[in-house]
Amino acid sequence: MCGIIGITSNKPVSSAIINSLRKLEYRGYDSAGISTLSDGFINEVKSEGRVDNLEKNPAIKSMEGSVGIGHVRWATHGIPNTINAHPHSSETVSVVHNGIIENSAILKKSLITKGHKFKSQTDTEVIVHLITEYLKENDLKNSILKMLKKIQGSFALGIIFKNQPDLIVGARRGSPLAVGYGPNENYLGSDSYALKSMTNKISYLNDGEFCIVKKDEVEFFDENGNKINKKILELSSTEQSYDKGDFKHFMAKEIEEQPFTLKNCINEYIDNINNDINIYNFPWKNNEISSVTLIG
Ligand code: GLU
Fold first, then answer.
1. pLDDT at residue 241, rounded to an integer
2. Do 96 and 69 touch, CB atoms closer than 8 A?
3. Binning pLDDT at 50, 70 and 90, where does residue 24 land?
């Protein structure tokens, strides 16, 4: 597991990315990193260990750019160190990734024969080189589609491009990814908690979908590149209360929250208007059910 964040705005984004990475630290903390675009260049700053170390990195203070991505890592391929920390970048793209690319070894071999030089031991870096390769002959959307067709495994991705100063691409298969909507800025994040201090307006990507996030517009696409519409959900403050509150531990809080959490889960499947159960292909008649047992 790991956490990813992306922000495109009309103001510098590095400190907001650091703040969001702190909220994502529960997902991974062996290393952390950020990349932003400024003056037409991709700048990368990465540190081993927790987000605190990244924040103390002297290069962060001078990091400019109003579009950027960030990552907290929990290594699957390659030891936890600064080189393997995300983002991974070429001259043209920078990528953060949550998940595992299962066919990375075979893709890496074929990219090396095409002259690509790898810096890290991660599975993620093949994504960087694939997009860089496809961009030579394709536009952005087709390069993303081709890359997504090539990789196998699970992923949530955040990608920025040297020649696109106001744009982040997000994509997911297996790993979670949310889009957030703010004033003159928009966001990508592994969960709504990471975006909480910036917005309560959220859309979730489904498996296979990707999106192009600009500061004043977000477009969503299915796995074939067809444009799709997304619901924007407004999360209430209770849905967003992810801090410990007065509880001593998260576990105590979660135990206390169980009745509300179950109610929220079940509510999604209740059709209050028709007094019915709203589950596709539900095989029983409602009046035949006398009790429900939940196990987990
Ligand atoms: N597989 C990637 C890596 O090892 C991402 C791991 C993660 O999800 O943190 O760098």
1. 60
2. yes
3. very high
pTM of the shown model: 0.84
In this prediction, residue 273 carries a pLDDT of 75
- Can you tell me the distance from the alpha carbon of 167 to that of 214, in angstroms, rounded to the nearest whole number? 5
| 96 pLDDT higher than 80 | yes
Measured CA distances, 129 to 3, 10, 112, 157 (Å)? 22, 29, 9, 14
Determine if the peptide bond prior to 283 is cis (ω within 30°): no
16 in Cβ contact with 7 (< 8 Å): yes
Contact 175/157 with Cβ under 8 angstroms? Answer: no
What's the rounded Cα separation, in Å, for the pair 244 and 180? 23
Q: Could you read off the pLDDT of 109-159 as tens digits, one per residue? A: 999 999 999 999 999 999 999 999 999 999 999 999 999 999 999 999 999
- What ranges make up the beta strands (E) of 205-287? 210-214, 217-221, 227-228, 233-234, 270-271, 276-277
Q: CB-based contacts of 161: which residues, under 8 Å, 6+ apart?
A: 37, 92, 93, 135, 140, 167, 169
Cα of 104 from ligand 1 centre, angstroms: 12
Contact 26, 213 (CB under 8 A): no
Ligand 1 pocket member 83 (CB < 6 A): no
What is the rounded distance in angstroms from the CA atom of residue 158 to the CA atom of residue 128? 11
Does residue 233 have its Cβ closer than 6 Å to ligand 1? no
State residue 99 phi and psi, 5-degree precision: 135, -155
Dihedral sign from CA coordinates of 141, 120, 25, 164: negative
Average model confidence (pLDDT) for the chain?
A: 92
**Does ligand 1 come within 6 angstroms of the Cβ of 33?**
no
